[in-house]
Design brief:
By secondary structure, this protein is of the alpha/beta class. It contains ten helices and nine strands. It starts with 7 loop residues before the first helix and ends in a 15-residue tail after the last helix.
Length: 318
């Protein structure tokens, strides 16, 4: 009989989840979140968290524009040094802030999947008016959004970093992660994430990665909705532009297996999948970050040198 040792972080995760379930019904929860917000470093005028500000970098008249789309409850600083390096290479870089993100998790409650898709679509259409080529770089849920918009609007290149096509599951969950999220929804109006669930193997990076510590139930519903949409065969088949996918086999947030399955269904004839064996979910801050930066820079340099892909078929509905 094979013995399995339960890792301490698993035990801690179970205890936190159980404690959150009890805390979820507490009337003091909202004031706790507000106090946490008050302690966070942010711009006094805009209220935006430090590291979550939308940024424009590089020459505005560059032929190639690169749009960075951050992930679930994350922020623009989750891309580490890559935006600055690509701007230094001579490209125009736009790091956007998704609706409901980078301020307070309370602002995330009313945000639906269509709100996020509209925001990314607006950014892409705006860049296409002033640049001959547009490349999307998405991390986690941002990669989900980038894939959906590319399928609908077309793009010249797509970089998918630790993309969310499904939540990572473990055998001891019994059921899929998505099923557990749906089952526990009524009991969990809020989930406490904290730094424990900032998934990066290079522990000293945790303090630098901007992410909400609290997640509203409604945001989980939005994430699942986007996952359902992006995994449609017709959507994935509509991704015809060059694709670079970077993923860690040990990612315990976004499923590597789901990413592989989605990647195979994309009909691009120029696809590359890079495994990052020393990293977790936040690959731009982890041990393989230099590999990530160089792979992305090489990909952008190649894509910016030719016309790119044709717009997607109107049948690729979101």
């Amino acid at each position: 009989m094979r013995m399995v040792r339960i890792q301490p972080r698993w035990t801690a995760g179970v205890l936190i989840a159980f404690g959150t379930m009890i805390l979820g019904g507490c009337v003091l929860l909202k004031p706790m979140i507000q106090r946490s917000d008050h302690l966070a470093l942010r711009d006094s005028e805009t209220g935006i968290l430090a590291g979550a500000e939308p940024r424009d970098l590089g020459p505005s008249d560059a032929p190639c524009a690169i749009l960075f789309v951050h992930g679930f409850v994350g922020a623009g600083n989750n891309f580490g040094e890559l935006p600055d390096r690509l701007a230094a290479d001579g490209h125009f870089v736009r790091v956007m802030r998704l609706p409901g993100h980078g301020t307070s998790p309370l602002d995330l409650v009313p945000i639906a999947a269509d709100d996020l898709l509209t925001a990314v679509g607006d950014e892409v259409r705006s860049l296409k008016k002033t640049h001959s080529r547009v490349i999307l770089v998405g991390h986690s849920m941002g990669a989900t959004l980038a894939t959906l918009i590319t399928a609908q609007e077309g793009a010249d290149g797509l970089v998918l970093a630790a993309p969310y096509f499904g939540v990572t599951s473990r055998w001891y969950y019994g059921l899929s992660s998505e099923t557990w999220i749906r089952l526990t929804r009524p009991a969990l109006p809020w989930v406490y994430k904290g730094r424990l669930f900032v998934q990066v193997n290079r522990k000293e990076a945790k303090r630098d990665i901007v992410s909400y510590r609290w997640i509203p139930r409604e945001a989980g519903d939005t994430l699942l909705d986007l996952g359902d949409r992006v995994n449609k065969d017709e959507v994935l088949a509509a991704v015809t532009c060059p694709v670079l996918l970077l993923h860690a086999p040990g990612d315990i947030a976004a499923s590597p297996a789901a990413a592989e399955a989605a990647f195979k269904k994309m009909t691009s004839t120029d696809k590359r999948f890079v495994w990052l064996n020393r990293s977790n979910h936040h690959i731009f801050w982890d041990y393989d970050r230099e590999t990530v930066f160089e792979a992305a820079r090489t990909f952008v340099a190649k894509v910016s040198a030719f016309e790119g892909c044709i717009p997607a078929s109107p049948s690729a509905r979101l």
